[in-house]
Structures are given as C-alpha cells and as structure tokens.
Write a structure and sequence with these properties.
GO terms for molecular function: ATP binding; ATP hydrolysis activity. By secondary structure, this protein is an alpha/beta fold. It has nine helices and 14 strands. The structure holds adenosine-5'-triphosphate.
C-alpha cells in the first residue's frame, strides 16, 4: 500500500433513530468510519441492519421521521450538518454524491439524458456555458461507455444497465470526492451487474473518487472494496481489510456466519450454512452484545456488557472474544 491519503469521509459516533408511535427505532448506533481519498469501502449487513439509513445520513437526505441523535459526519473536513440548506444543495453532487438502487426513480422519465446531465451541471456550475456543459455531458457518456447518440434518448429507451451508467455519469458529473453507492446493481440481472461493477472499478481508478459501496452481497463487496465494514443491528461490528475476509482468519462471529453463508462449491455439492435466528428488534435491543442471542460462542458477559471496539491486527471488532487485544482509540 502507498502513502496514507487524507480522509474524505469521517463518521464519528453517529447514531440515527426513526421516531415512530411505538417509540424510537435505533437504526444506526455509535458508528465510526473513515473513508480516505480514492478508497473503496464496502458496507455490508443483512436487510434492516441500517446500511441505507447510514448512507442517507451521510448525504443528509434522511426523511422527516429520522433523527440524528448523536455524532458527526464530515466530508472533506466539512461538518455536513453544519451547512445551511443553500450550502448543502451546492455541497451535494459537487463534493459528495449518491447512486441509488433504482436508476428509474433517479432519472426523470420525460427528460433526455443530455438535458438531465446538463441541468445537473448548470445547477451547480452557473459559470459554465451551455456549450461547455454539453461538451462535459459528452465526455461523461464516453467515460461510462455509452454511445454519444444516446444523449438524445429518454430513460425508457435505454436498457437497465445503460440507465444505471447514466446515473453514475450524473453522480460523478461534478467530480465529487465521495460517491455513495447504495445497492447500485441489485435491480440488474447478474451479467449486467458484473459489467456495471467492472465499469465502476474502471471509472473509479481513472477518476479517483472514493466510494462507500453499500450492499447485502458479501462476496461482491469483498471483491470490489479494499476494506469492508460489517453492520449488525445498526453497529459496525467489524471493519476489516477485504483480503482478510476468509474463514481461515478469525472474525466477529457474525462475519464468520456471513462467510459460511456464501455458497461453497465442492466437487459433489453446494453447501450453504445460514446464521440461525433473526436480527433483533431495533426498538428493544437485547442487553450486552446485540448478536449474542444468535452467537454460537456467546459467553455470560455477552448477555450483559456491550463489547468495546478493539483492534486485532488489521481488524477492528466489537466482540468480547477479542477483548485483551489492543483497545482501539483511533478509527
Ligand atoms: N421510516 C421508518 N420508520 C421506522 N423504522 C424504519 C424506517 N425506515 C427504516 N426503518 C427501520 O430501520 C432499520 C434500518 O433500515 P435500513 O433501510 O437502513 O436497513 P438496510 O440495512 O439498508 O436494509 P435493506 O438492505 O433492506 O435496505 C430497519 O429495521 C428498518 O425497519
């Protein structure tokens, strides 16, 4: 690895809850995470673990019923929650942007590709002439490898994969330092999914923005990202370099469960071992470690005391099995 790059995203002690009639749903709890310039970090976890809530919280796009109860989000050193609404509008897309799961809902069905890209550019860069914006729109289509003739196409005239490429082109139009991708390939079939991933990797290497890549697909994230954050019940229970993500390494028992759940192809059969039990109720989290009711290694202390974050080699973990490893003070 080369020199350490400056952080583009710093999440400190972030907690987010949804306010419901039945009480608070603790969707994200005490999250710490740093993403550095040009880095790809994956965020994985089962459905409902809080991944999307975290992504929206970073973008300050949470809906009205969600509140940041604690912590801070900084992008390029700027506290995202300290910006005025006006400042936020120009900060989004120019410094940080997001690729959503559904390209169809991200694109305007009654506007051509060219108009959508140009409008995004001009909304943030009023200094650009229309001709300059058009030129940039062409460059962006070249970058995502879509024929320029599609500048005049409407979203419904494009395939799902092409639409997602257009969404990526719009997300990177203003050269943001950070792009959050929330399940960007989930709606696509496996072959198209693969080509979009290759495309993301290629463009990222060429342009150099950092990516926080959110997905429930563990093997896909491990392949794309250099580090992976594993989320369970709103907490990052493990943060590990992806090259260490295999069963011969010691992991958080939840990570171990996810690794065992990846289909293993042997000569005779495909074996999958799921994780028993269900994720906890986020309104009524179990005491101690939230994973203890499902954990095959649970000890008495796990039912009572929430584990502190510890550093074990290159990994950060929240698990009593690793207590005694060096206590982490810096993420
Ligand atoms: N508006 C809401 N009101 C109450 N609870 C909510 C609301 N939106 C989400 N939640 C809850 O917050 C938790 C985290 O949801 P979130 O969508 O962030 O998880 P996720 O890991 O992204 O899941 P998925 O992969 O299914 O999108 C879930 O338990 C969900 O039920």
């Amino acid at each position: 690895m080369g020199e350490v790059q400056e952080p583009v995203l710093e999440i400190e002690d972030l907690s987010v809850a949804y306010v419901t009639n039945a009480g608070l749903v603790h969707a994200v709890s005490d999250v710490n995470l740093t993403v550095r310039r040009g880095e790809i970090v994956g965020l994985v976890g089962e459905s409902g673990s809080g991944k999307s809530t975290m992504a929206y919280a970073i973008m300050r796009l949470l809906r009205g019923d969600a509140v940041v109860t604690k912590g801070r989000v900084r992008v390029l050193g700027q506290d995202v929650y300290a910006l005025s609404e006006k400042e936020l509008r120009s900060f989004r897309w120019s410094k940080m942007s997001m690729v959503f799961q559904s390209a169809m809902s991200a694109l305007n069905p009654v506007m051509t590709v060219e108009t959508q890209i140009i409008d995004t550019l001009l909304a943030h860069r009023p200094d650009l002439s229309r001709a300059q914006a058009r030129e940039r729109a062409q460059e962006l289509l070249d970058l995502v490898r879509i024929d320029r003739k599609h500048l005049n196409s409407y979203p419904h005239e494009l395939s799902g994969g092409m639409r997602q490429r257009v969404v990526i082109a719009i997300a990177i139009a203003l050269n943001p330092a950070l792009v959050i991708m929330d399940e960007p390939t989930t709606a696509l079939d496996v072959v198209v999914q693969r080509s979009i991933l290759d495309e993301i990797r290629r463009i990222q290497a060429q342009v150099g923005f950092a990516i926080l890549f959110v997905s429930h697909d563990f093997s896909l994230v491990a392949e794309l990202a250099s580090r992976v954050a594993i989320m369970y019940a709103g907490r990052i229970v493990e943060l590990t370099p992806s090259h260490l993500l295999h069963l011969s390494e010691r992991h958080h028992p939840y990570t171990e469960g996810l690794l065992k759940a990846i289909p293993q192809l042997t000569a005779e059969e495909v074996t999958i071992q799921g994780i028993g039990g269900y994720p906890p109720d986020l309104q009524d989290l179990p005491p101690g470690c939230a994973f203890h009711p499902r954990c095959p290694y649970a000890m008495d202390i796990c039912t009572r005391v929430r584990p502190a974050q510890v550093q074990a080699g290159e990994k950060l973990l929240e698990c009593h099995l690793f207590q005694g490893a060096e206590v982490n003070t810096h993420v």
